[in-house]
Amino acid sequence: MSLEEQVCTLCVMDTSDPNITFDENGVCNHWKEATEKLEKGWLPNENGQKLLEESAAEIRQAGTGKEYDCIIGVSGGIDSSYLLHVAVKLMKLSPLVVHVDAGWNSEIAVQNIEKLVKKLDLDLFTYVVNWEEMKDLQLAFLKSSVANQDIPQDHSFFAKLYEFAESKKIRYVITGSNLTSESILPSSWGYDASDSIHIKDIHKKFGKKKLKTYPMMGFIKSKIYWNYINKMNVISPLNWIDYNKNEAIEFLMKEYGWKFYGGKHHESKWTKFFQAYYLPKKFGFDKRKAHLSSMIVAGQITREEALEELKRPLYKEEELADDMNFISEKLGISLDEFKKLIELPNKDYSAYKNYQSRMQFLKKLKAKFFGKK
Q: Please, what CATH class does the domain formed by 38-351 belong to?
């Protein structure tokens, strides 16, 4: 590590985040912010149990006489899989389970979903994104050379989930987001996948096909309609229990025959490549640092254990070669073309149109009328 580089003395976040700051003791801003988030939002105690029970009762009451009282999006990953167990077994809910297949599912992820849904006796609705459109948009993002290459996939997930909820008149979205593994994520490493203005501008510049059926949610729909008019209540119950990702893996394997796929969000073949190769190689961002640091703040692993984990290679050489061949072939380009796209000069999110000015205006309105910043 060069003299310019610095690692937090309490977690493993470092100057690969260009916006990181340190105090006189070498403690980073992420540690302090995550500590505050956990103190306020993670309640693995009686208060959390009370919130879990009250929310469950409210959701069941609102769903009286309906086929489903809430909706849950699943990927086959740890968080959404364990969330299904919590929703059904602890909260006694009747969720509509939705999976959006954007073309990058691993076989393990699909099998995990099937096992959970079958054992919990739940209805599963799967929406398959038009691959030709998805492929064109994914290639457009590669050509744009921005950091967040997961936006085409993530945007379709959320857009379709909310569409399903609206069509079924469901007002409660149960999400697997949790502070124990996600309290830290530098803004420079990723940004809002709901920005349709950003997506459309990149596709206009680099895409070749019309996005006729690709699930898209505009600014008014995503930030105003679903938040303030046809209000969706987003519930994150994993923040109200003693949720430990490593323990959850063991539990899911034992109780449901669930299988681990190797890393956070590696249930998607594209996300695995994006997080384990594209981001570290091209931008110097290793998302394991944020994930592990979040777990350190939550007291679930030690800093020493995290440092040891970071010594492990992100990819085995042979596995990387296989994945790159698979992805380039699936995208319909040669391996050389794929490598050249990765080697394009890096671009910032701001190099393309986005909804930041609209978000700032919306913030001002919220502050004026609701006293919220």
A: alpha beta
